[in-house]
Specification:
- The complex is a heterodimer of chains A (about 270) and B (about 270).
- Chain A is an alpha/beta fold.
- Chain A contains ten helices and eight strands.
- In chain A, α4 crosses α6.
- The radius of gyration of chain A is 21 Å and the shape is globular.
- The relative contact order of chain A is 0.16.
- With about 270 residues, chain B is mainly alpha-helical.
- The longest helix of chain B has 26 residues.
- The two termini of chain B are about 30 Å apart.
- The chains are: A alpha/beta (about 270), B mainly alpha (about 270).
- At the A-B interface, α1, α8, α9 and β8 of A face α6, α7, β5 and α8 of B.
- Chain A: This is ditrans,polycis-polyprenyl diphosphate synthase [(2E,6E)-farnesyldiphosphate specific].
- Chain A: Its cofactor is Mg(2+).
Chain lengths: ~270, ~270
């Protein structure tokens, strides 16, 4: 039995070691070459052209990235569907606010005007004011088309009065906006209606009073090996595509573009 | 269990053949899970959204379900011997009455088995489940079993269809789609999600092992994330707990009355 145990320990060690090497190797590859997902055979030809055009050389400075995204942004709008609302799930221990503001800027340049920033620890909420100031500062440098849009930064879900469809809306969420918020909605519904009157339409109607609506795409930043939702509002994740991207400090423009193209190639059948 | 129809297309057979192969794959995977010591498995068999498929396909799927549930009832002695319990989660009132009866019978005949549990999500969507939980709570308030301030996320969790189940640790979605499609949204908030490109009827034991390996590698980070989460548990009040326990007992009574009603309905 001792020999079998030893063999088991040895095999387990080897498998874990190989797996660790594989993970480290993939991260290294991520750093050196653009991330091209393996569903590229589904993309139309112009997407490939677009992806090559956006491959940023290592060491490109910030100004280049922004210019690149502005040209890419208009092309992306024509090509495939773009998500209306993107939820960003940050799983890293430390968040760099400047970097996050840059990432939000990239989304806006690509044509996505509703972004949620979520982290399960609740750190983002404490940076709410800082994000607001920095984002407004960055918005001053937007090209003419985008300059006319105002930038609003909200804490958690908001109702219609505080939400403007024409502006750029950034929502800072934490776990209190998930299940506890659903419980709050439940208390409201129970207080108003008879139990026979409660059906899915009623709950949907009440949930729809709050913005942001369901995210079409959820991007998980960081080095978790698998997708997790970590407490993001469960009601809203019904049809959300979940994709992982590198650490928010290491992510590059071409990572984001290839993720958006990948999103565009996904087919939703809605049960049919 | 996604990918049956794509598999059927790939092999050039009818869609129902794909679904049938999918069912065979399910029995195989359940055997592997049992051997690996996995205590509970939940499968997404039929969504409420799937009722929107063509009449023909829905009829075929219902016939397939009837056939399989009948087979399950024939094997109930074997299930009882192995201690396997069957639970069907979902809004079974939407199914044809004879299928409802079969479902209730399968659940009742394996009710006392707790060694391993198979949850079949049939006529299920997560949003409908959450809505049902709210209406149960509303019933409780109306019957004076609950106060509105008793309603919190823990109470809602105890009113879901999956209230007797363990929290899922790993969710596997096959055929390359990277979304949850209204499956166990509430229950999988801190669960490892594993998406694979393999079509369900082609799912092999190595794919299962890869998924489990991912789960094992992810677990320490996930546990740490849960420890760091910002929600603090409120202190339980004894007075509320009694009231809530009483409400939950009454809810179970209501549920078993509903099931009795289904099984005693005339053909």
């Amino acid at each position: 039995m001792g020999v079998l145990n030893l063999l088991y320990v040895f095999l387990h060690f080897i498998i874990t070691y190989i797996h660790n090497i594989h993970v480290a190797f993939s991260e290294l590859i991520d750093r050196i070459k653009p991330v091209v997902k393996d569903r590229t055979y589904l993309w139309p030809a112009d997407c490939h052209v677009l992806l090559s055009a956006t491959t940023v050389k290592l060491g490109a400075n910030v100004k280049d990235e922004r210019l690149l995204l502005q040209t890419v942004g208009s092309d992306l709008k024509l090509l495939q569907k773009l998500p209306i609302h993107i939820a960003c799930l940050f799983t890293e221990k430390d968040v760099n606010i400047d970097r996050i503001v840059t990432i939000v800027e990239w989304f806006v340049s690509m044509g996505v005007y509703c972004i949620s920033l979520y982290d399960h620890k609740g750190c983002m909420v404490s940076y709410h004011d800082e994000i607001k100031i920095k984002l407004k500062g960055v918005a001053a440098n937007f090209p003419n088309g985008l300059k006319s849009k105002s930038v609003s930064v909200h804490k958690g879900f908001t109702t219609k009065e505080f939400f403007n469809l024409d502006s750029i809306n950034v929502f800072i969420m934490n776990q209190h906006d998930g299940k506890p918020m659903f419980a709050q909605v439940a208390r409201q519904i129970v207080g108003e209606l008879n139990y026979c009157q409660i059906d899915q339409g009623v709950v949907e109607h009440t949930m729809n009073q709050f913005y942001p609506k369901d995210p079409e795409l959820m991007l998980q930043f960081g080095s978790f090996l698998s997708n997790t939702t970590l407490g993001y509002s469960p009601w809203h994740l019904r049809l959300t595509q979940m994709m992982r991207v590198p650490n928010h400090m290491r992510i590059r423009v071409d990572h984001l573009v290839s993720t958006m193209l990948e999103y565009g190639s996904c087919q939703q059948r809605y049960g049919k | 269990m996604d990918g049956n129809r794509r598999f059927a297309n790939k092999c050039g057979v009818k869609k129902i053949e794909g679904h049938s192969k999918g069912f065979d794959k399910l029995t195989e995977v359940l055997q592997w899970c049992l051997s690996l010591g996995i205590k509970e498995v939940t499968v997404y068999a039929f969504s409420i959204e799937n009722f929107r498929r063509s009449q023909e396909e829905v009829e075929q799927l219902m016939s397939l379900a009837r056939e399989k549930f009948k087979r399950l009832l024939e094997e109930k002695d074997k299930l009882n011997e192995h201690g396997i319990g069957i639970r069907v989660i979902g809004n079974i009132a939407l199914l044809p009455t004879d299928l409802q009866r079969l479902v209730v019978e399968s659940m009742e005949s394996t009710k006392s088995n707790t060694k391993a549990v198979l949850n079949i999500a049939f006529s299920y969507t997560s949003r409908e489940e959450m809505t049902h939980a709210i209406s149960e709570v509303a019933w409780g308030v109306q019957e004076d079993l609950l106060e509105i301030e008793d309603i919190d996320e823990e109470l809602i969790q105890k009113c879901l269809y999956t209230r007797h189940s363990l929290k899922p640790d790993l969710l596997i979605r096959t055929s390359g789609e990277v979304r949850l499609s209204d499956f166990l949204l509430w229950q999988t908030t801190c669960c490892t999600l594993y998406f694979t490109h393999v079509l369900w009827p082609e799912f092999a034991i190595w794919d299962l092992c890869k998924a489990i390996l991912h789960y094992q590698k992810n677990l320490p980070i996930l546990m740490e994330a849960q420890r760091n989460s910002c929600i603090t548990r409120p202190l339980p009040y004894t007075k509320n707990s009694e009231r809530i326990e009483h409400f939950l007992t009454e809810m179970e009574v209501k549920e078993s009355q509903f099931r009795n009603h289904i099984s005693t309905q005339a053909t």
